[in-house]
Design a protein that fits this description.
- With 255 residues, the protein is mainly α.
- The protein has helices spanning 2-26, 38-50, 55-85, 87-100, 109-116, 120-144, 148-156, 161-198, 204-213, 217-245.
């Protein structure tokens, strides 16, 4: 019941804001050029989706997000497990991670372009970097919080290093891994749109930038809605996956 009430309140607030926006734009209380009526924005959105205007660009953006998330998240997951499990490796690599992680990812763009060129590889490389660090740091923290007693239990039953990873490290850190995946996927989405705005002639980010340059703000707002929907769907899917994969892990709820 509490979740239903929260959802009703959220939906009510959104609907109220949209209705107020519509009224103010219709009666020209606010600039209809900068803030076009939501009804016009929705018309552009549906026309772009069902008319095929956004289909190809949505495909390009999704491909970059998925490829970067898969490569960066996968490598961050593996290295995070190793660093969390092995103190010597963690001590050797942690200063490097601490130095690179805070760097604004777009500050690496010139170097990435020099290394990979201005093609698709550079865009995917940027998304890979964005997904790598959240997954690495979160996974490492998840492994480090595992009670050492579990390793001793595996040893007492004749387990080896592989058994440590299979029976202790992975399941013990899985709730943290799922949280890291959520952060990594959100970072992948954000960097993808940013990279497409800077140097790409395809993808949702390129449409967003072109719409701003030509002051076609209904297109700009409709693309922003698509990006928001992608973010909501990715969060929702990962939340469901976390509930299915880690039913023993209950998040603490506060009043």
């Amino acid at each position: 019941m509490k979740k239903q009430r929260e959802r009703i309140i959220t939906i009510s607030i959104v609907v109220a804001v949209i209705l107020l926006w519509e009224i103010l734009a219709r009666y020209k209380v606010i600039s209809a050029i900068i803030f076009p009526a939501p009804s016009f924005i929705l018309q552009t959105l549906f026309k772009g989706i069902f008319g095929g205007t956004y289909t190809k660009d949505l495909y390009y953006s999704f491909t970059r997000i998925f490829a970067g998330f898969l490569i960066g998240g996968g490598s961050g997951l593996l290295l995070g497990m190793i660093m969390g499990w092995s103190p010597p490796i963690r001590k050797a690599l942690d200063p490097i991670v601490a130095a690179l992680h805070p760097l604004p990812k777009f500050s690496l763009l010139p170097m990435i372009i020099i290394i990979f060129g201005i093609g698709e590889s550079s865009r995917i490389a940027m998304v890979t970097i964005a997904a790598f660090f959240p997954m690495l740091v979160t996974t490492m923290g998840g492994v480090m919080q595992i009670n050492p007693v579990y390793y001793e239990v595996v040893d007492n039953y004749g387990g080896n290093t592989f058994d440590h990873f299979r029976k202790v490290v992975f399941p013990g850190s899985l709730p943290f891994i799922m949280s890291g995946a959520r952060l990594a996927l959100q970072s992948s989405l954000t960097i993808t749109i940013g990279v497409e705005m800077i140097f790409s002639n395809s993808g949702l980010g390129s449409i967003l930038w072109l719409a701003w340059e030509t002051m076609r703000l209904t297109h700009m707002y409709s693309v922003l809605i698509i990006i928001s929907i992608l973010g909501i769907l990715s969060t929702w899917l990962l939340r469901i996956a976390k509930e299915k994969l880690t039913p023993w892990h209950q998040e603490t709820r506060t009043r």
